[in-house]
Amino acid sequence: MALRVGVVGGGQLARMMIAPAVELGIEIRVLAEEAGMSASLAATAEGDYRDVDTVLAFAQDVDVVTFDHEHVPQDVLAALVGGGVAVHPGPDALRHAQDKIVMRTRLAELGMPQPDWAAVSNTDELQVFLDAHGGRAVVKTPRGGYDGKGVRVIGAATEADDWFAALAEDTHGGRLLVEELVDFSRELAQQVARRPSGDVRAYPVVETVQRGGVCAEVLAPAPHASIRCSDVAAQIGVAIAEGLGVTGMLAVELFETTDERLLVNELAMRPHNSGHWTQDGAVTSQFEQHLRAVLDLPLGDPSPRAPWSVMVNILGGPESDALDDRFAAAMEAHPAAKVHTYGKAPRPGRKVGHVTVSGDDLDDVAYEARAAASHFLD
Ligand code: ADP
Description:
nine-stranded antiparallel beta sheet, alpha+beta, single chain, D-amino Acid Aminotransferase, Chain A, domain 1, Dna Ligase, domain 1, 3 domains, binds adenosine-5'-diphosphate, Rossmann fold, four-stranded parallel beta sheet
């Protein structure tokens, strides 16, 4: 009988697991938040991932539960594990991707390189950190942030007053994370797959380009990365996957500093935007690898298929925008580009698809990918 994977969350990451599941003969079921979501074509249920009964019912007849996002609450995860459901990544690993203070604390214990940081409860504590770090710092809400929401560069402690006020009503301890403002030369991402029985595979480290707090494009592998940089990134990825007991795909977002250090920014325990290039540019895509890992099947080869791959995100424009015409135009003009669409209605800034081009020459590949994606710009 086919193995069955249940994915909680109906976004594009769940959607992109569907094709490799079909190819591998794995039955995939999705618990989507509502009808008409990106992964609704594999949805067998719609409901609230924060509701224990909904998630338990969904998990009844699958071999493993995994995730499209990290927001499933710990009490729901505990109920799944208590009910004998295989959950990958498990709650103990996942808590480090749910709360940035929990993550920073544990990474410090593991001796991972990080920006200076502190957990602060009030304006006075924040001011002490600012004074010790040249008067500027980055404040983050520990939970629930994404695409730069919940991240603020500040020059005075009072600039976080509204967040402290909101946290006063929070049940998670009411602290903010503050970090040194890292002088980075670029951002990198290291992906690693780990299966429950322990086998680990590292993908090549990639460069991620962010615009307005959102990933704009990914260059794979990271251009001009020294062997030392690539090795250290892979070692960090493997050490975190093993140290935290991560199962499935792990992405470690890194800063490369102007003095060539790597510092961990944050973690994602699922397929990640920095790994979309692997669908077309690697022997084993991150989506196939995630399925293999959570089912404890042998992992695939993470090697690139071509010297270079460039992935450019397609962000939505006005809601009235007819994307179908644009996709067709991009395919017409750039037959070598792999165009991926998420089946999502456009909204300004919303990720609605991506384009990947692979080849021998980085400049050519980047030009082609950006030109194909430019069909979606106004
Ligand atoms: P999110 O959870 O919203 O993705 P991140 O913690 O990854 O938030 O931060 C979003 C972006 O903000 C990062 O990609 C980086 O560009 C910038 N950033 C975050 N932390 C720092 C820092 N300590 N120093 C400098 N820039 C930072």
